[in-house]
């Protein structure tokens, strides 16, 4: 019998259709033929039976059909009644309607005589009342008969007994029984199995998923050749060739063809997957739900425990879902499958299952983060102490991985569970505070309980131990910081390994941040005992390393060894809560050491790492430092952009006293670029008064002084610079490379016409500069050039250009080069008459011209002695030689000035005066001040003006 061509072709099912038609043709010569069609869920068994029924009917056969259902498996005669109904209209009119032969009254009358589970043979009453009438109907139907039962593994046992009884009583009537079943869930009815004839009168036909070519053919039929070629491989990987799921994908891509090689996976696919799962049975559905809840790699041990089945049953169910294309191994094939499975569950059911999953994962030793994710979605949370401990451990792991939102959620839940241990409660609070702090310091202070009282119970440990110090320092509360340091020092845990180093680091940061207040602290007021007096054993902690770097920088200024150490540390450490302080210190050290390329690269990397760690406070700080680097390199657009960016990451209030840093950069960049409105707006941002007690305040005052100067408010500008100078001396950090206040004040004096005072300040700054203070040296030399006679300016400007070249300040280099070129242009004989009077009111231009800078020289070029304002006599003389700085100090001392008076007059520290006098005494071989006057007459006189003019 040839199948008509008018029916929709099945893909890769020709072999099974041919076998069914062969069995139907063989039924004419008896006995009855059987075909059992099996295969994974969704592989087309139902469609195959329907297609064959249509083809058989078109060929003259009569078809009786029924579909079993899992929900009606315990309903007696459920399938048998469907067969009766499908027989209606198949017999001649004289025979009556067969469907009426089995009405409700008849079924009710025999139900008690047929056990639901089929455990007893059918009684004569059932056979005569229910079985024989259908046998009569089949006998009266002309031609062959096909009985098709789909999902017959779900058929009620009584119906299968009836079918077996009919098959036994058939004579030569052509009959083909086609049964569709899931391959992994065959029927267990022994009576029917015993009636199955041997080959060739019965066949088991296995349906398999479509091959890759079959998938492409089906896609081409519905989506066209181009889309089929583009999507075939991806669709096969998603569905494993399952026809039902493939039809779902086809529906999705008919609605939205994006032209991409990735097919659209939407509601059609989700519905198909759910249909497959329900067809696979309750065990398969349960397993899929638990795999979806686990959302990650799982072992068979975990799956067996969460599903509550033995390993043999588990492996059989895993095989079923793999055959159906839902799983690949023990993973769901597509993320959409997980979403569909979870969405198909009631929220209460899902939350309850997560609690069970969390407990099993914990018992099996899963990672804390894995368990915590389940606990966060569970309701109710399992009882016991372990959920809180797991949540706390998971939060710390999440912090290390930069997942601050997850860590926050874990800690909030842990706190809601109200742990009994006080130390654990305080630790949770401190960690929660730390997370908030890294996101928004102001929000952390306002929204979370202060952990300042925790040290009394010894609860805070590790990096959290310094919270009572770091928080007040950030916001300028020095008294609270001192109290916090005393509090944590008094805790017994301070003598534990590592605790001493943290106390030492806290004390160092306290003094570095607020040096003005350091003089008011007595050592007795600060923590005593081993933690404060003994150096930590072993390698220094990152916190101590960072404090030591800045201590050396503020005490002695930048030097090669210090900058090299900063480079080493910044390359060695990755960003985390322990290394943040040392990395920030390294960047500041590199910045003031003019290692600008290294500092820029490190700032960019650390800002990126901070973003990956969701640490907005850190990102703001590193971006602000990078803005200052750009300003010092002369890249004004980048400086403006980065300064604005750093101020927008966190609120102005959350910056605390640190807001002076990005604001100072923004003010300076605005002035240098001619955008005075930017500088003016930055100055309108409120800053805390406590900021002016910190070194950050010095840089803010410098920027504010520049703004006053450009607005021609010279007295206010001079007051800013001189106040900054007094504070640097008070802080014992009067180093031109850090705060070049003398050259800035000298510029104001030049504007006011006081060249003598400007020269004194610039010369004092030059004397304090080392070979590494190129930026401050260049600024001083420009002032001295402006103060010198026209014919003596060129060497000073050339030296200034060299200094700016060394430090990488392209803006100042261009301005100096332009000034030098203009001076040389003006000095030509045809440009200006000889002896023209110079202006009494001198200024130093800041706007660079478009000139090509000279070739770079090595970073640490030795400061040329020929360009100093004193030149040693080259003749061989027995008389001692004093430097210009030493001579000025000695002259004032010989006139009776005290060390403090000399320091105030020359704008240097008392310590510097003492050092100069020590060298003068040694060179002049005198022991008292009263001998200085006589000794000075024997020294080589300075020839500064002559040297400068050469």
Spell out the key features of this protein.
950 residues, mainly alpha, 5-stranded parallel beta sheet, two-stranded antiparallel ribbon, elongated, disordered N terminus, disordered C terminus
Radius of gyration over all CA atoms, rounded:
46 Å
What would the principal axes of the Cα set say about the shape?
A: elongated
Name the beta content range. Answer: under 5%
Structural class: mainly alpha
> Segments where pLDDT lies below 50 for 5+ residues?
1-8, 450-459, 522-538, 830-843, 845-878, 941-950
Approximate helicity band:
55-70%
Distinct helical segment count: 46
Largest sheet entry: 5 strands, parallel
Could you report the average pLDDT, rounded to the nearest whole number? 81
Strand order of the largest sheet: 2-3-4-1-5
Give the tally of β-strands.
7
Measure the end-to-end span. Answer: 118 Å
Question: What can you see in these coordinates?
Answer:
It is a single chain. The protein is mostly helical. The protein contains 46 helices and seven strands. The strands form two sheets. Strands 2-3-4-1-5 form a five-stranded parallel β-sheet. The chain has a two-stranded antiparallel sheet with strand order 6-7. Helix 32 runs antiparallel to helix 33. The radius of gyration is 46 Å and the shape is elongated.
Give me the secondary-structure topology:
Blueprint: H1 14-26, E1 33-39, H2 45-58, E2 62-67, H3 78-86, H4 104-111, H5 124-140, E3 145-150, H6 157-169, E4 175-182, H7 190-195, E5 202-206, H8 212-223, H9 225-239, H10 243-255, H11 267-280, H12 282-294, H13 300-307, H14 311-323, E6 327-328, E7 331-332, H15 335-343, H16 347-363, H17 368-377, H18 386-400, H19 404-416, H20 422-439, H21 441-447, H22 467-475, H23 478-490, H24 499-513, H25 515-518, H26 530-533, H27 542-556, H28 560-572, H29 580-592, H30 596-612, H31 616-633, H32 636-649, H33 660-672, H34 676-684, H35 695-710, H36 714-730, H37 741-752, H38 755-768, H39 774-787, H40 793-807, H41 810-826, H42 884-894, H43 899-906, H44 910-924, H45 932-936, H46 944-949
Parallel strand pairs: 1-4, 1-5, 2-3, 3-4
Antiparallel strand pairs: 6-7
């Amino acid at each position: 019998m040839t199948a008509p061509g008018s029916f929709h072709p099945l893909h890769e099912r020709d072999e099974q259709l041919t076998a069914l038609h062969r069995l139907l043709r063989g039924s004419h010569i008896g006995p009855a033929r059987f075909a059992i069609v099996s295969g994974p869920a969704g592989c087309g068994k139902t469609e195959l039976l329907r297609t064959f029924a249509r083809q058989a009917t078109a060929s003259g056969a009569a078809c009786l059909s029924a579909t079993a259902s899992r929900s009606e498996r315990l309903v007696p005669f459920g399938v048998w009644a469907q067969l009766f109904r499908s027989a209606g209209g198949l017999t001649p009119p004289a025979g009556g309607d067969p469907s009426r032969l089995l009405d409700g009254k008849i079924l009710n009358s025999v139900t008690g005589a047929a056990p639901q589970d089929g455990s007893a043979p059918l009684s004569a009453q059932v056979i005569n009342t229910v079985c024989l009438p259908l046998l009569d109907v089949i006998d009266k139907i002309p031609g062959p008969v096909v009985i098709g039962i789909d999902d017959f593994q779900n058929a009620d046992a009584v119906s299968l007994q009836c079918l077996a009884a009919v098959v036994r009583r058939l004579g030569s009537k052509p009959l083909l029984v086609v049964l569709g079943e899931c391959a992994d869930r065959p029927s267990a009815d022994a009576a029917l199995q015993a009636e199955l004839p041997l080959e060739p009168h019965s066949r088991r036909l296995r349906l398999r998923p479509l091959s890759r070519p079959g998938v492409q053919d089906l896609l081409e039929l519905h989506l066209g050749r181009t889309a089929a070629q583009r999507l075939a491989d991806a669709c096969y990987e998603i569905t494993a060739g399952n026809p039902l799921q493939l039809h779902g994908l086809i529906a999705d891509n008919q609605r939205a063809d994006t032209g991409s090689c990735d097919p659209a996976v939407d509601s059609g696919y989700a519905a198909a997957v759910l249909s497959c799962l329900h067809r696979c049975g309750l065990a398969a559905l349960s397993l899929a739900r638990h795999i979806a809840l686990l959302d990650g790699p799982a072992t068979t041990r975990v799956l067996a425990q969460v599903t509550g089945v033995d390993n043999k049953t588990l492996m059989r169910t895993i095989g079923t879902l793999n055959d159906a294309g839902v799983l690949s191994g023990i993973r769901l094939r597509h993320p959409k499958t997980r979403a569909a499975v979870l969405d198909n569950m009631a929220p209460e059911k899902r939350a309850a299952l997560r609690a069970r999953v969390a407990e099993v994962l914990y018992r099996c030793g899963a990672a804390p983060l894995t368990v915590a994710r389940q606990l966060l979605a569970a309701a109710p949370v399992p009882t016991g102490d372990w959920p809180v401990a797991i949540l706390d451990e998971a939060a710390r792991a999440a912090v290390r991985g930069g997942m601050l939102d997850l860590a926050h959620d874990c800690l909030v839940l842990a706190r809601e569970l109200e742990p009994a241990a006080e130390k654990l409660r305080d630790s949770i609070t401190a960690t929660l505070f730390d997370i908030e702090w890294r996101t928004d310091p102001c929000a952390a202070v306002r929204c979370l309980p202060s952990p300042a009282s925790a040290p009394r119970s010894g609860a805070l440990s590790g990096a959290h131990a310094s919270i009572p110090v770091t928080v007040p320092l950030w916001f300028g509360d020095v008294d609270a910081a001192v109290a916090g340091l005393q509090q944590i020092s008094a805790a017994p845990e301070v003598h534990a390994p590592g605790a001493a180093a943290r106390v030492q680091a806290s004390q160092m940061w306290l003094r570095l941040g607020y040096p003005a207040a350091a003089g008011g602290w007595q050592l007795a007021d600060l923590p005593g005992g081993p933690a404060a007096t003994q150096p930590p054993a072993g390698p220094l902690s990152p916190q101590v390393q960072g404090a030591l770097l800045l201590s050396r920088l503020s005490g002695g200024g930048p030097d090669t060894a210090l900058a090299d150490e900063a480079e080493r540390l910044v390359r060695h450490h990755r960003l985390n809560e322990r290394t943040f302080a040392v990395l920030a210190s390294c960047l500041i050290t590199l910045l003031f050491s003019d290692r600008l390329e290294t500092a820029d690269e490190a700032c960019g990397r650390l800002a990126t790492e901070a973003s990956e760690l969701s640490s907005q406070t850190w990102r703001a700080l590193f971006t602000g430092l990078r803005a200052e680097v750009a300003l010092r390199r002369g890249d004004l657009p980048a400086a403006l952009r980065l300064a604005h960016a750093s101020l927008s990451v966190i609120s102005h209030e959350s910056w605390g006293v640190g807001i002076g840093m990005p604001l100072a950069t923004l003010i300076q960049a605005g002035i240098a670029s001619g955008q005075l409105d930017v500088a003016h707006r930055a100055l309108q941002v409120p800053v805390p008064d406590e900021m002016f007690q910190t070194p950050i305040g010095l840089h803010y005052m410098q920027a504010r002084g520049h703004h006053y100067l450009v607005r021609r408010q010279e007295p206010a500008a001079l007051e800013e610079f001189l106040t900054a100078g007094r504070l640097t001396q008070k802080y014992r950090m009067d180093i031109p490379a850090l705060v070049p206040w003398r050259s800035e004040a000298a510029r104001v004096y030049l504007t006011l016409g006081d060249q003598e005072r400007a020269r004194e300040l610039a010369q004092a700054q030059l004397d304090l500069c080392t070979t590494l203070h190129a930026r401050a040296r260049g600024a001083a030399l420009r002032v001295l050039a402006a103060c010198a006679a026209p014919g003596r300016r060129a060497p000073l400007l050339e030296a200034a250009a060299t200094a700016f070249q060394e430090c990488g300040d392209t803006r100042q280099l261009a301005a100096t080069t332009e000034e030098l070129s203009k001076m040389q242009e003006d000095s030509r004989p045809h440009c200006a008459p000889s002896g023209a009077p110079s202006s009494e009111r001198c200024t130093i231009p800041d706007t660079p011209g478009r000139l090509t800078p000279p070739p770079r020289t090595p970073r640490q070029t030795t400061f040329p002695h020929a360009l100093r304002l004193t030149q040693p006599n080259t003749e061989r003389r027995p008389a001692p030689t004093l430097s210009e700085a030493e001579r000025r100090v000695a002259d004032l001392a010989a006139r009776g000035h005290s060390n403090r008076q000399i320091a105030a007059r020359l704008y240097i520290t008392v310590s510097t005066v003492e050092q100069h006098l020590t060298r003068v005494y040694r060179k002049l071989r005198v022991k008292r001040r009263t001998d200085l006057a006589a000794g000075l007459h024997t020294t080589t006189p300075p020839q500064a003006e002559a040297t400068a003019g050469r």
